From TrEMBL:
This is 5'-nucleotidase domain containing 2. SUPFAM superfamilies: HAD-like (SSF56784). Belongs to the 5'(3')-deoxyribonucleotidase family. It comes from Sparus aurata. Mg(2+) binds at residues 52, 330.
Length: 489
C-alpha cells in the first residue's frame, strides 16, 4: 500500500518522485510581465497607439473596490431607503471575479463556460452556493443558458448580464450582499428592482470619481510607456468614456500637467461601445474651462479636447486605419470587440488578473494537481471499457478523486468561482471572448516596456483536439522513468 499525490492511500508503486510526472518545463516559466499573443502582431508596423483610460492608462488598487462598495452600499440605504441592516456587511475582497454572469430575475451570480454552460458549484444566491440539484430545477433540468437570454453582444442580455468591467467587482459583491440580507431575513423582494437600484448606486459612485486618483498604481510606468512611444515617433490618442475633469486629474497625477503634449487626439465621454458603431453623434470641442463649443469640427487637433463623436468621423479626419493602429483597453466588449470585428485595428487587452493567476499556475501545488488530474482522466478513459464490478468500483473512486482534484485546483484561484480563464476543463465565456477580441493581452500597459518597438509577438501553436495525442499515449509513457510507467499500468 502506498500513498498517492495527496497523501492518501493507493495501490500504486510510488517509490518514484511525483514531480517526475510533471511534463518538463510546463508552467514554472510563466511571467506576469509577458505579453501573450492570440494573433501575430508586428510592432514595427504599428505607427499609432490608442488607449482607453480607466484600468488601461490608470490602474487602480484594490482599495478602490472597497471605497466603491462602501459608497454604493450607503447610497442604497440613504437614497433608496434599503434596510439599515445591509450596512453591517463589509466589503468581501475576492468574493467575485470578472466575467461572471448574473441572472437578473433570479438574483443568481454564476460562472459560465465558452459553451454557455453553468459551471456546477459556482452558482451563488446571496453569499451562499446553491446546490447543483436546485440549479438544475431552476433552469429546467439543464445547466445550459440559451444565447437569447445570455449576454448579447455587449454583455447585456435581457435576463442575464455579464460583468466585464473591473469596476463591476464591487457591484457584484453588493448585489450578493443585498440578496443575502433579504433572503436570510426572509424579506420578500423583487431581484429585478434590486439589480436596477444597485446599478444606479454604483453609477452614482463613478460620478463622484474625483478621488480615484489616490488609488492609481504604477503611474510612473504609464508615464514611461507614453514617453517611450512618443520618443520613437509614434502617434498617440485617447478615447475614454470618463469626463475630462476626471481624466485630467488622474493624468496630471501620473504624467504631469503637460500630459496632453503626449497625445495627438483626446476624446472624452465617448460613449463606447456606441462610439464604434453609431455614426450619429458629431465631435464637440471643449474649451479651456471644460465648456462645450458649438462650432462644427473639421479636424481633430493636438492640444484640444473633444467630447463624444464617433469612429467613422475619427477615421475620416485622421486617416488612421487598419493594422497600423493598436488600441489598448480593458473592456472586451466596449473597447475591443467592434475594433476587431468591424474595423480591423489591432487590439490589446489589459487583464490585471493575470498577475495573480500566473503566480498560481507557477506553483508546484497547481502543477502537481493538474498533472495528476490529467493522468487520472486518461486512466478513466481506459478503465471505462471494463465492465466487471471491481473495475466499476475503481472507476467510481477515480471519479470522486477527480472531483476533489478539480475543486482543489479551483480553490487555488478563488474558492467561490475559480480562475477567470477556465471552468473545470473548458475556457470560460470570458476567456473565449478574450481570444476572439484581442490580438495580444497583458497584465498592464507597463509590460510594453519589456519589448523593443519592432518586436513581433508570435502566438504559440497550441494543438487542436484532433492534433493532440491522447494523454499517456505510448510517446509520453516512454519518457517516464520505469517506476512512473509501472504507476500508469
Ligand atoms: Mg476601461
Amino acid at each position: 500500500m502506498k500513498t498517492n499525490i495527496r497523501g492518501t492511500e493507493c495501490y500504486a508503486p510510488c517509490s518514484f518522485k511525483y514531480s517526475d510526472l510533471i511534463p518538463p518545463g510546463t508552467c514554472n516559466l510563466l511571467n506576469s510581465s509577458t505579453i501573450f499573443a492570440n494573433n501575430e502582431v508586428n510592432l514595427a508596423e504599428v505607427d499609432i497607439y490608442g488607449f482607453d483610460y480607466d484600468y488601461t492608462l490608470a490602474l487602480y488598487s484594490n482599495a478602490l473596490d472597497t471605497m466603491i462598495y462602501n459608497t454604493a452600499r450607503d447610497f442604497l440605504i440613504e437614497h433608496f431607503k434599503y434596510p439599515e441592516g445591509i450596512r453591517k456587511y463589509d466589503y468581501i475582497p475576492n468574493f467575485a471575479a470578472r466575467g461572471l454572469h448574473y441572472d437578473i430575475q433570479k438574483g443568481l451570480l454564476m460562472k459560465i463556460d465558452a459553451f454557455h454552460y453553468i459551471q456546477s458549484g459556482t452558482v451563488y444566491r446571496g453569499l451562499s452556493p446553491m446546490p447543483d440539484e436546485e440549479v438544475l430545477q431552476l433552469y429546467g433540468g439543464t445547466y445550459h443558458i440559451p444565447l437569447q437570454q445570455d449576454s448579447g453582444f455587449y454583455g447585456k442580455g435581457p435576463k442575464v448580464k455579464q460583468f466585464m468591467d473591473i469596476f463591476s467587482i464591487p457591484e457584484m459583491t453588493l448585489l450578493a450582499v443585498a440578496n443575502d440580507f433579504f433572503i436570510t431575513n426572509d424579506i420578500p423582494y423583487d431581484p429585478v428592482h434590486l439589480f436596477r437600484d444597485v446599478s444606479e448606486a454604483i453609477g452614482m459612485v463613478h460620478l463622484k470619481g474625483y478621488m480615484y486618483k489616490w488609488f492609481i498604481l504604477r503611474g510612473e510606468e504609464t508615464h514611461a510607456v507614453l514617453h517611450r512611444l512618443v520618443n520613437n515617433g509614434k502617434k498617440l490618442f485617447l478615447i475614454t468614456n470618463s469626463p475630462f475633469s476626471f481624466v485630467d486629474k488622474g493624468m496630471m497625477h501620473m504624467v504631469g500637467k503637460n500630459w496632453r503634449d503626449f497625445f495627438d487626439v483626446v476624446i472624452v465621454q465617448a460613449d463606447k461601445p456606441h462610439f464604434f458603431t453609431d455614426c450619429i453623434k458629431p465631435f464637440r470641442r471643449l474649451d479651456g474651462n471644460g465648456d462645450l463649443r458649438w462650432e462644427k469640427i473639421n479636424s481633430l487637433d493636438k492640444g484640444q479636447i473633444y467630447k463624444q463623436g464617433n469612429l467613422f468621423d475619427f477615421l475620416r479626419l485622421t486617416g488612421w486605419r487598419g493594422s497600423k493602429v493598436l488600441y489598448f483597453g480593458d473592456h472586451l466588449y466596449s473597447d475591443l470587440a467592434d475594433l476587431m470585428l468591424r474595423h480591423g485595428w489591432r487590439t490589446a487587452a489589459i487583464v490585471p488578473e493575470l498577475e495573480q493567476e500566473t503566480k498560481v499556475v507557477c506553483t508546484d501545488r497547481y502543477a502537481l494537481n493538474l498533472t495528476w488530474l490529467q493522468a487520472l482522466t486518461g486512466l478513466m478513459e481506459r478503465m471505462q471499457t471494463h465492465r466487471d464490478p471491481e473495475s466499476k468500483q475503481v472507476f467510481r473512486e477515480w471519479q470522486n478523486e477527480r472531483e476533489e482534484l478539480r475543486a482543489m485546483i479551483k480553490n487555488l484561484f478563488n474558492p467561490h468561482f475559480g480562475s477567470i480563464f477556465r471552468t473545470r476543463h473548458n475556457p470560460t465565456y470570458f476567456s473565449r471572448h478574450l481570444c476572439r477580441f484581442s490580438d495580444i493581452y497583458m497584465t498592464s500597459l507597463s509590460c510594453l516596456l519589456n519589448y523593443d518597438l519592432s518586436y513581433t509577438f508570435y502566438p504559440r501553436r497550441t494543438p487542436l483536439q484532433h492534433e493532440a495525442p491522447l494523454w499517456m499515449d505510448q510517446l509520453y509513457a516512454a519518457q517516464l522513468p520505469p517506476q512512473g510507467k509501472a504507476f500508469l499500468l
